[in-house]
């Protein structure tokens, strides 16, 4: 009987040198300080884990001065938990400062580290001495991203062969201690497509993608097309002959495949964004993601690449990284596409052992390949931005796959962005339903069709491939239980997002009854009906549930003390909602601004400045909230199964006056034309959080506001549009 496909886990543990700076992902995600992370992994049902035993961490100063204390505790704990470790010895690094990948001594030095590890931990039987050698060689020797920052083919090929030689010598050293130790050799696997003009370049890259595995399998002999290329670039023939012995041929081939792994080359560069432009010295061309091209779907994706690897090597295979840094719905879609692709190949007879969910505690700054310290965090199954790692929807998926082999979620009724029409640089005029993976995809129900927030949800749900219905007060009166029950029975949503409400704060004092009906009674009614049907509910509250006198930003556990009718209505709504439905997600937010609503504070300020008038703005301190960030982050949290009260505003408190000045400066106006107004001391209703900083920084939000708005405020023609 064929054993089921396993779910493995992986920790992003790169220690990469960029110039003289070392990046250590275990430190940056906080995993280094949390041995209890291993318990969380075990609770998911994962029983095989890619775990670091890294050279740079154990022998940073000298190859014979070792410190195993951190690893002793963790590897012992993994044994207690019944988790089998795949020991990674060098993960994208160039090694400690006393060597580098172009150093002829590098392979022997890594093998010495491998011997130390095997002697210290004789129970370890799975090893990856060098993670992704071909990818690391390209990034370190050809593209210059990482140390030693080579930018030539000679450096690239010498590094690659040095890595493969190090793998052979390391496995020999390990097997002296543990003869049955197995090599799990990982690398990225993609494919290059091209126009007919560039077919020669695509063929070259498609041969090159197999080179690391070919070398380790002893396939690069004198008849191999790359034998002469390697020698011509200064690779010692003795090293190639050593690799011909193939005594470190992979026992398991680990395939890592990302959406960017497949490329399309096109000499018609003006069809593509400039950042894709490049060349090879013979032709100039764009190098773009192949998923953005109208290629046959069967030619792309993890199943196609796994099939090629199986047919070439006929060795056991595992997907050793399955990760997509995107919205939570697309993260789930990608994981399931990889899982389903692996099962498809198994059904065809391929020996596919496992899929590895990557990376369990996320990664930092991989959108810049670690070359910039922006603190850009991509969560995995756990989000480390909370006081303790918080399970995301990927954790629920991983647990289901590990324990049952199946997982379902409403977002899986639609394909990921890479299979929807938004992927094209030139989308077709008529949108296709070919991305529907169910006859009638399950949908969200969103209230507030006439409001800023409701329309923003609808727009971004369309973009994210989340089917939904957007209702106005005429479609559903949220304060009428019969109307709500009828609408939910009609539309059968998998979750409800309440973006409706009475927001005319200045009028609320004179219209208390209307304010409480919409904001309080209506929200309570939705909560009760959703509770009866066990449907997730997202609803909104405000920073105005606080009086602004605390003299620091408010967190979720602070006592409410509203001073306005609007604030009272929201505070009372929070109480009633959570009393009626303890699984509801209540988001306190503040001071909306966005690119699609011309009536928010920033648009008003810039409109006034564009007319040549100075403006006054309050000194009260708030937490401005960029609507696209609010919508996208709250959708992720909804999909994760978030509940209770969360504060959700962009990180960075500011006064209304300073917000206006920052906006003025970015728009090209003199910020001194913004004058502070109001009482001193000012009130401070800024929001912070004790549950996790999920929202981007305010400065980033302001930059994106201007990029997304596409308005040139100093242009006379745009002043009319501003009005």
TrEMBL record:
<dbReference type="Pfam" id="PF04321">
    <property type="entry name" value="RmlD_sub_bind"/>
</dbReference>
<keyword id="KW-0560">Oxidoreductase</keyword>
<dbReference type="InterPro" id="IPR001360">
    <property type="entry name" value="Glyco_hydro_1"/>
</dbReference>
<dbReference type="Pfam" id="PF00232">
    <property type="entry name" value="Glyco_hydro_1"/>
</dbReference>
<comment type="similarity">
    <text>Belongs to the dTDP-4-dehydrorhamnose reductase family.</text>
</comment>
<comment type="function">
    <text>Catalyzes the reduction of dTDP-6-deoxy-L-lyxo-4-hexulose to yield dTDP-L-rhamnose.</text>
</comment>
<comment type="pathway">
    <text>Carbohydrate biosynthesis; dTDP-L-rhamnose biosynthesis.</text>
</comment>
<dbReference type="InterPro" id="IPR036291">
    <property type="entry name" value="NAD(P)-bd_dom_sf"/>
</dbReference>
<feature type="domain" description="RmlD-like substrate binding">
    <location>
        <begin position="443"/>
        <end position="674"/>
    </location>
</feature>
<protein>
    <recommendedName>
        <fullName>dTDP-4-dehydrorhamnose reductase</fullName>
        <ecNumber>1.1.1.133</ecNumber>
    </recommendedName>
</protein>
<dbReference type="InterPro" id="IPR029903">
    <property type="entry name" value="RmlD-like-bd"/>
</dbReference>
<keyword id="KW-0521">NADP</keyword>
<dbReference type="InterPro" id="IPR005913">
    <property type="entry name" value="dTDP_dehydrorham_reduct"/>
</dbReference>
<dbReference type="InterPro" id="IPR017853">
    <property type="entry name" value="GH"/>
</dbReference>
């Amino acid at each position: 009987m064929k054993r089921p496909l396993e779910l493995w886990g992986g920790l992003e543990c790169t220690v990469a040198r960029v110039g003289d700076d070392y990046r250590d992902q275990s430190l940056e995600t906080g995993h280094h300080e949390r041995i209890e992370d291993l318990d969380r992994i075990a609770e998911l049902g994962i029983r095989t884990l890619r775990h670091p035993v890294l050279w740079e961490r154990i022998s940073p100063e000298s190859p014979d001065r070792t410190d195993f204390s951190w690893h002793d505790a963790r590897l012992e704990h993994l044994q207690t938990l019944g988790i089998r470790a795949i020991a990674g010895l060098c993960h994208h690094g160039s090694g400690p400062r006393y060597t580098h990948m172009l150093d002829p001594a590098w392979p022997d030095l890594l093998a010495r580290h491998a011997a130390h590890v095997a002697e210290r931990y004789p129970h370890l039987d799975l090893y990856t001495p060098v993670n992704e050698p071909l990818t690391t060689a390209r990034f370190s020797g050809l593209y210059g991203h990482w140390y030693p920052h080579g930018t030539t083919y000679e450096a690239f090929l010498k590094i690659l062969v040095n890595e493969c030689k190090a793998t052979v010598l390391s496995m020999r050293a390990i097997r002296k201690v543990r003869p049955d130790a197995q090599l799990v050799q990982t690398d990225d696997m993609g494919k290059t497509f091209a126009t007919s003009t560039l077919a020669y370049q695509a063929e070259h890259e498609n041969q090159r993608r197999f080179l690391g595995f070919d070398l380790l399998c002893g396939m690069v002999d004198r008849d191999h097309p790359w034998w002469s290329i390697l020698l011509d670039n200064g690779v010692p023939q003795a090293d190639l002959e050593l690799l011909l012995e193939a005594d470190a041929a992979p026992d398991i081939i680990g395939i890592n495949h990302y959406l960017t792994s497949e490329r399309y080359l096109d000499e018609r560069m003006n069809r593509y964004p400039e950042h894709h432009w490049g060349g090879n010295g013979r032709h100039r061309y764009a190098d773009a993601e192949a998923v953005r091209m109208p290629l046959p779907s069967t030619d792309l994706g993890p199943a196609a690449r796994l099939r090629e690897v199986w047919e070439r090597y006929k060795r056991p295979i595992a997907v050793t990284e399955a990760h997509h840094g995107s919205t939570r719905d697309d993260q789930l879609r990608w994981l399931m596409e990889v899982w389903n692709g692996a099962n498809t190949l198994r059904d065809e007879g391929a020996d596919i052992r496992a899929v590895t969910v990557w990376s369990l505690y996320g990664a930092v700054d991989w959108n810049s390949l670690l070359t910039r310290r922006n603190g850009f965090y991509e969560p995995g199954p756990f989000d480390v931005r909370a006081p303790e790692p918080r399970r995301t929807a990927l954790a629920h998926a991983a647990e289901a796959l590990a324990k049952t082999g199946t997982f379902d979620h409403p977002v899986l009724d639609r394909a990921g962005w890479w299979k929807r029409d938004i992927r094209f640089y030139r989308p077709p005029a008529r949108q296709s339903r070919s991305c529907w993976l169910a006859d009638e995809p399950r949908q969200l129900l969103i209230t507030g069709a006439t409001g800023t927030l409701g329309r923003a949800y609808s727009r971004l749900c369309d973009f994210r491939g989340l089917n939904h219905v957007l209702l106005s007060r005429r479609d559903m009166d949220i304060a009428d239980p019969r109307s709500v029950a009828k609408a939910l029975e009609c539309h059968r949503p998998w979750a409800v997002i309440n973006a409706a409400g009475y927001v005319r704060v200045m009028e609320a004092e004179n219209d208390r009854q209307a304010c409480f009906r919409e904001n309080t009674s209506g929200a309570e009614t939705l909560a009760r009906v959703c509770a009866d049907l066990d449907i997730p509910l997202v609803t909104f509250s405000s920073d105005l549930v606080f009086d602004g006198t605390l003299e620091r930003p408010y967190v979720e556990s602070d006592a409410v003390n509203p001073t306005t009718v609007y604030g009272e209505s929201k505070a009372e709504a929070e109480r009633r909602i959570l009393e009626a439905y303890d699984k509801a997600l209540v988001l306190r937010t503040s001071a909306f601004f966005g690119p699609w609503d011309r009536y928010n504070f920033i648009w008003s300020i810039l409109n006034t400045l564009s007319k040549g008038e100075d403006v006054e703005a309050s000194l009260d301190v708030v937490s401005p909230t960029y609507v696209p960030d609010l919508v996208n982050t709250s959708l992720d949290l909804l999909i994760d199964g978030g509940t209770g009260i969360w504060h959700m505003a962009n990180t960075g408190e500011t006064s209304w006056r300073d917000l206006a000045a920052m906006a003025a400066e970015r728009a090209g106006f003199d910020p001194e034309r913004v004058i502070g107004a109001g009482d001193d001391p000012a009130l401070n209703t800024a929001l912070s959080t004790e549950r996790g900083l999920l929202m981007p920084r305010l400065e980033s939000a302001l930059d994106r506001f201007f990029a997304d708005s596409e308005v040139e405020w100093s242009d006379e023609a745009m002043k009319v549009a501003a009005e």
